[in-house]
Amino acid sequence: MEVVVTGISLISSLGKSLETSWENLILDRIGISLQQPFPELEARPLALVDEQPTNAIELTQLAVAAALKDSGLESPLPDCGVVIGSSRSQQAVWEELIKSKVESQKSKVASTPDSRTGRFLNPPLPTPEFLEILPNAIASIAARQIGATGVVLSPMAACATGIWAIAQGSLLIKTGQCHRVIVGAVEAPITPLTLAGFGQMGALATTGAYPFDRYREGLVLGEGASVLVLESARAAQQRSAKVYGRVLGFSLTNDAFHAAQPEPTGKSAIVAIKQCLERGNLTPQDIDYIHAHGTATQLNDKREAQIIQYLFPHGVPVSSTKGATGHTLGASGAIGTAFCLMALRHQILPPCTGLRSPQFDLDLIVTSRKAALRHVLCLSFGFGGQNAVLVLGK
Fold first, then answer.
1. Residue 186 is assigned to a structural domain of this protein
2. Is the distance from CB of 321 to CB of 25 less than 8 angstroms?
3. What's 171's domain CATH number?
4. What pairs with residue 370 in β-bridges?
5. Which residues form the Ketosynthase family 3 (KS3) domain (predicted)?
């Protein structure tokens, strides 16, 4: 059963709509700036949607509403599946709760004495609805928003989350469990813990993100969300829906190598790309553009370049959009997919923003250009060696 995309939303540091983000990307604009949202941490380049870190739930609701509007659908949609993931979900809320608890303990504020010891206890902290701070909260809230009463899934696969969500949604349609699914990923990762963690790893850039550049410094954390409406081709045709493109194939593999570092040879990532192409009845020669993961870290870009050179020795145009949007972690694959679909629709190759001195022998797109695009490949490689690949058709 053929799966098509009939609606897209995209919220990023480049803009709060699909059209604005795409236009700014094509113009090679950068949504990254030096920010210090937390006074206890040093200023760093970040890619924020607003002036301050955003809220994951608000981002989800905006993205879902925009995707439905773009597709021409209206709630309630009881028979619509929901597959929306996040690598961080409500981590920001948990951090605030823990911070409040620590501050409360330090202040030694007394409330009611313990009946057995006579000692005063710390007062209970105000907490949000418990179910809304669990890891699956984003998918659950999206389901309530559209009135979905069927399948609700919440994948969490680090930076591979977005493509994993799209793959799961496509499978629900291909197996006949749903004829329509909203899929995607949402990320609001600008928190003290996330910044400190990546900082300790030495993975954060100090001036900006420069994917595949000889002088790349590391990744820049970014916020964002992208939600897609997937439908069976028959369902889309019955309501005369516009179609952005087709989901032709996907694959998910794991390196089983290290908690953070990619497997040096890229063997399981190569398997994922081959499987994806085979499932789409395609060969490497059929691919007209590759949206690379391109985090601008030393290890990722080197390995990814080697993989592309090995599988596509004939040369295929390549770019990473993280130099413009920052690295939105779990949402990056969904945002990359949205940009791929816009590339197919407008027949334009998006630039590898931030790239000035290419290190690798690839056809890296320095400035946007027109091209005849039929099939595009989107890559995501997450911590834990999680490899996700998606191929889309015009």
1. yes
2. yes
3. 3.40.47.10
4. 348
5. 1-394
To which residue do tokens 């950068």 refer?
30
Is there a domain that residue 111 lies in? Answer: no
Task: Judge whether 159 counts as a catalytic residue.
Answer: yes
Q: Which domain holds residue 345?
A: 3-96+129-393
- Of 131, 129, 128, 144, nearest in space to 60 by CA: 144
The amino acid that residue 365 corresponds to is I
Q: What is the pLDDT of residue 264?
A: 87
Torsion-angle region of residue 32: left (phi > 0), alpha (psi -120 to 50) or beta? beta
The b/e string for 93-107 (b: 16+ C-beta within 10 A; e otherwise) is: bbeebeeeeeeeeee
| Residue 113 forms part of a structural domain | no
Catalytic residue among 179, 291, 327, 375: 327
The interaxial angle of helices 298-311 and 267-279, nearest 10 deg, is: 50
The DSSP bridge partners found for residue 392 are 247, 376
Task: Tell me what pLDDT residue 379 has.
Answer: 98
What DSSP designation does 47 have? B
Q: For the chain, how long is the longest CA-to-CA vector?
A: 78
Q: What is the mean pLDDT of each run of 10 residues along the chain (394 residues)?
A: 97 98 98 96 97 95 98 97 95 85 67 55 56 86 96 96 98 97 97 95 96 97 98 97 98 90 90 98 98 96 97 97 98 98 98 97 97 98 93 97
Single out the catalytic residue among 179, 291, 293, 375.
293
235 is a domain residue: yes
